[in-house]
Write a structure and sequence with these properties.
The chain is of the alpha/beta class. It has helices at 12-23, 38-42, 58-65, 82-103, 129-143, 178-189, 208-212; strands at residues 3-7, 27-32, 47-50, 70-73, 107-111, 148-154, 156-158, 165-167, 175-177, 197-203, 206-207. The strands form two sheets. The chain has a nine-stranded mixed sheet, sandwiched between helices. It has a two-stranded parallel sheet with strand order 7-9. Helix 1 crosses helix 6.
Length: 214
């Protein structure tokens, strides 16, 4: 059993990942911003913790992650202003990575997106540009850390039913269900061979446990 801190605990993917992680025997603390979401999180078997990570400094973050074995970042500003996108998806994510290192939490799983990186190719005039820039910076900071990191990069998210199968070899993004992304998160936590890897994936034909253990 691992003690898991999942940041962004009320997201659509997170709410699907939490019961999988709990069913695997892990203790999951799900960080949420809105206290009105506590019941939704508790219904998954996770323990809700209300905290506004956007405003947390380094010490507050270190206290937040301390005592856990794994940090999962599944938070996001959800669009809106570029300023908040940078504040959450870049700055808060980077502080959480630094906090994990400071607190001795070795394992860190980042939920990113297919095609993230400095060469994302998004036009600066596109509304998606701040998010692309923020994720590129956070992902690179994680890669350069001393943590046992995994970056999960799903393609366009759908509300389709889970298939339990993905494609980690495709060069181009298509789509994948949120339910399968949740499955990939849970499988990655339990698979040490995912450490040090960026796993970009679409829906596919390979069972998820096999795909992430390559």
């Amino acid at each position: 059993m691992a003690r898991i801190l999942l940041i962004g605990g009320h997201g659509k993917v997170a709410l699907l990942a939490e019961p999988r992680l709990v069913a695997a025997g892990h203790h999951v603390t799900a960080v949420i911003r809105n206290p009105e979401h506590e019941d939704d999180v508790a219904a998954t078997g996770a323990t809700p913790l209300v905290a506004d990570v956007e405003s947390f400094d380094a010490d507050q973050f270190a206290n937040l992650v301390s005592g856990n074995d794994v940090v999962i970042w599944s938070a996001g500003a959800g669009g809106g202003s570029p300023e908040r996108t940078y504040a959450v998806d870049r700055d808060a994510a980077i502080r959480s990575i630094d906090a994990a290192e400071a607190a001795g939490v070795r394992r860190y799983v980042m939920v990113s997106y297919f095609g993230a990186g400095p060469d994302h190719g998004v036009d600066p005039g596109d509304a998606f540009f701040p998010y692309a820039e923020a994720k590129a910076a956070a992902d690179e900071h994680l890669r350069s850390s001393g943590l046992d990191w995994t970056i999960l990069a799903p393609s366009a998210l759908t509300l389709d039913d889970a298939t339990g199968r993905i494609d980690v070899d495709a060069a181009d993004a298509t789509s994948v269900s949120r339910a399968d992304v949740a499955h990939v998160i849970a499988a990655s936590v339990d698979e040490p061979r995912t450490a040090g890897r960026t796993i970009s994936f679409n829906s596919g034909d390979v069972p998820i446990e096999d795909a992430v253990s390559r």
